[in-house]
Write a structure and sequence with these properties.
- This protein has about 400 residues and is mainly α.
- It has a single domain, classed as Up-down Bundle (Growth Hormone, Chain: A), CATH 1.20.1250.
- About 85% of the residues lie in helices and about 0% in strands.
- The chain is built from 16 helices and no strands.
- The protein is globular, with a radius of gyration of 20 Å.
- It starts with a helix and ends in an 11-residue tail after the last helix.
- The relative contact order is 0.16.
Amino acid sequence: MEATLKQGESTGKTAFPLFYFFVFFAFGTLLPLLSVYLQEVAGLSGAEIGMIMSISPVTTIFVQPIWGMITDYTRKPVLVLTIALFATSLIGLLYSFVDEYRWLVVMAILLASAQSAIVPISDSIALHYVQKNGKKYGSIRLWGSIGFAVAVLVGGWLSDRFALVAIFYLFSSMLMLSGLLAWRLPKESQPMKSETLQGMAQLFQIPQFVLLLIATFLIFGPILANNFYFGIFIKQLGGTLTGIGIAFLLAAGSEAPFMKMADQLIHRFGMVPLLMFASAVSCARWLFYFFEPPLFFVYITAVVQGLSVGLVIPAALQYVRDIAPKQVRATAVSLYSAVGNGLGVWFCTFIGGYMLDRGHIGDVYLFFSICTFVGMLSLIGISLCNAKKFPFRKGEKA
C-alpha cells in the first residue's frame, strides 16, 4: 500500500507539470490570436467578433457544470478529461477549415462544449493530489503559465512567418499530446456521499460561496476577456503579430513566480486579503489601458498580470475547495469556473465587442476596470461574513 502511494506521488510529480505545460501551451497558441484571425482572415466586424468570442463562455455556463456532475457520478476524472482533450483537439482542427460566420458560430459552440471540461477537471485532480501528498498547487499550476507564455511567442512568430491558420494546427497537436499525458495522472477519486444536485443546493446556502461567484463574475470576466482583446489592442497601438506574442509572453510568463509563491502568501496574509490586493492591481491596469498609452509602457505593465492572475487563481480555487462539501468539490469547482470562465467572460466579451464597434479599444478597458472595482465590493462582503464568523455551511464555523 505504501509502495503504491509512493509510486502515485512520483508519477504525479512529473506528470502534472508536463500536462499543465502542454494544455496551456495549446490555449496560448489559439486564444490570444483568435480575435486577430477573425478580424484579419475571416473579415468579421467588431460586433461579430464579440459574438463569436462570447459564445465560448456562455456555452461554458451550461456545459461545464454537466461535466462536473459526470465526473462526480462516474468517479473517473482522468477518463472524462482524456475524452474532452481529444474531442477539443479534433474540433480545433476542423475550426481551421471554416470561414463563414454561421459556421464559425457552430464551431465556437462545439469547441467550447468540449474545452470547458479541461481546466476544472484538471484542477480538481491536481488539488486532490496536492492535498493527499502535501504538495503545493501553485508549484504545479505555474507550469501552465509557462506553457501559455512560450506558446503565444511561438504562435505569434509562426503566424508572422507563415499564416494565422497555424494557430489551429498547433492548438490541436498540443491537446492530442496532453490527452496522452493525462493517462499518467493519478486516477483515484473521492467517493460520493450525497446526490450532486443536493450538494449544489447546499453550496448556494453558503454566503461566502455566493459572494465569491459574484466576485468571480466581475473580476475573472475582464481578466479572461482580455485574452481576446489584448491582441487587437496591441495591433491598434502599432504592434505586430510577433509583438502580440511578446506582450503575452511578458504577461503570462510573469504569472509563474507568483503562483510558486502563492501558497506562502496565502498562509501569511490570508486568501481574501490576497484576492483583494490582486483585484486592485487588475483594476488599475485596465484603467491605465483606457488612456491607450505608448506600446512600450503596455509591454512593461503586462508583467502586472503575473501579480494579479498568479495570485487570484490559486487563492480563489483553494477558497472554493475549503468551503465546499467534500462530496461535491468537483461540482463546486465546475460551478465556480462556469461563472468566471463562462458567464463573466461572456458578459465582458460580448459587451466589449459592441464597445469596440461603437467607440475605441480604450472604452473596452474602462468597462473592465469598472467591473473589477464592483467585484472588489463582493470580496469586502466575504470579509464581513468571515469577521462575523458566519458559518461556511450548516454545522461548521468559518
